[in-house]
Known about the structure:
Belongs to the eukaryotic ribosomal protein P1/P2 family. This is 60S acidic ribosomal protein P1. Keywords: Ribonucleoprotein, Ribosomal protein. GO terms for molecular function: protein kinase activator activity; ribonucleoprotein complex binding; structural constituent of ribosome. The model has no long low-confidence stretch (mean pLDDT 77). This protein is mainly α.
Amino acid sequence: MARAQKDTRPIADQATSEAACTYAALILYEDNQEIVASKLAQVIKAANIRVEPIWTKVFEKALKGKRVGDLLHGNAGNAPATQAAAQTSAPATQQAKAPEPAKEVKKAEEPEEDVDMGGLFD
């Protein structure tokens, strides 16, 4: 019976693990694959990087239900909720009154004091 070889590669540090999971998620997104921990781990393993399993689970949970394309384009990954919020706020802005002009608060001007700078600008 053949024994599975133990992975002897060192575990990547936090920054490398995060970067590896990010790139793996982008690869899966570009390939129209579901972003799940097992697939993230496969992509990372193919890149010859070893990360702690918690990282793939964290990325799966963070991206679950999100549209990665919207995240990349700055739409916060939640387009339907954003559109609904915009529609409900539109009537409120139409009913808003014109702002009243701000009243100027005048301060009593204090005379400037001569400060000795120790010959700095002489």
